[in-house]
Amino acid sequence: MNDKPNKQHEQRLIVVLVLLLLALCAANLWFGSVQIPASAVWDILCGKEPEKEVWKFIVLESRLPQMAAALLSGAALAVAGLLLQTAFNNPLAGPSILGIDTGASLGVALVMLFWGGTLGVSEATTRFTAIIAGAFLGSVTVLGTILFFSTIVKNNIMLLIVGIMVGYITSSVISLLNYFATAEGVHSYTIWGMGNFSGVTGEQLPYFALFVSVGLIIAILLIKPLNALLLGDRYAANLGVNIKLTRNLLLIVTGLLTASTTAFCGPISFIGLAVPHIARL
To answer: Which has the closest alpha carbon to 105: 16, 44, 213, 190?
Structure first.
């Protein structure tokens, strides 16, 4: 009897959220340190030439990639958080709980210490590539460690504790690196650690979108086994779900989504914890 009002309420809520998302996207394109008229922004998006050529560069090369990076990051971290909360049956689980983003931070810290934070403008592309590579290698290393322990530890809670311990150890190594790093290196790492969507350029955006899309597609394919896991491991096993394979795939997907976001945009992990709970409301 109450299904129809509930569905109508959900549909209205979805419409409100979509309109809010469009409003935020429009605000990101229209407002900034440089004032650009809304009509000029619309003309640029439609392919017309604006009054000032610099407006076109700002909208297409700065604000538009920034908007897309924010959308991709939000989707990636939210899905990663939902996967972990479902698998571990823990409302406090998030992408940072397994230390994957901390591993990415460790890779970036090693890069910052190696370069010393003294790269010039001509070396900016090389530096950014090195940061992305370091973040991916760091996150993959931590992910590999978690996958190794997942073959030994059969209990999800114990695996969660292992992930937390790995995160603490990685954070300690980062603190040690900061102690021996130069002032420029510490400053560069601190700026990166604040998170920044504007660092993703139009040339880098397709790669970021590719990594996130692959992770989201695999996550969608895991919907049915994860729904079975909500009823318990034994029930899921009776339904034919391969618990070990599902858990390993989940860790790989979470690592891919978290590592991609951290590598391109910096550590922005709170979204993965908050958004799944907001969606459940």
So the answer is: 190
The predicted-structure confidence for 226-260, as pLDDT tens digits, reads as follows 888 888 778 888 888 888 888 888 888 888 888 88
Torsions phi, psi for 239 (to 5 deg):
-85, 0
- Would the pTM count as exceeding 0.85? no
131 in Cβ contact with 111 (< 8 Å)? yes
Please, are residues 170 and 96 in contact by the beta-carbon 8 Å criterion?
A: no
Report the 3 state secondary structure along the chain.
CCHHHHHHHHHHHHHHHHHHHHHHHHHHHHCCCCCCCHHHHHHHHCCCCCCCHHHHHHHHHHHHHHHHHHHHHHHHHHHHHHHHHHHHCCCCCCCCCCCHHHHHHHHHHHHHHHHCCCCCHHHHHHHHHHHHHHHHHHHHHHHHHHHHHHHHCCCHHHHHHHHHHHHHHHHHHHHHHHHHCCHHHHHHHHHHHCCCHHHCCCCCHHHHHHHHHHHHHHHHHCHHHHHHHCCCHHHHHHCCCCHHHHHHHHHHHHHHHHHHHHHHHCCCCHHHHHHHHHHHC
Phi, psi of 125 (to 5 degrees): -65, -45
165 vs 163: CA distance, rounded Å: 5
Please say whether the dihedral angle defined by the alpha carbons of residues 78, 80, 81 and 86, taken in this order, is positive or negative: positive
**Amino acid at site 225:** P
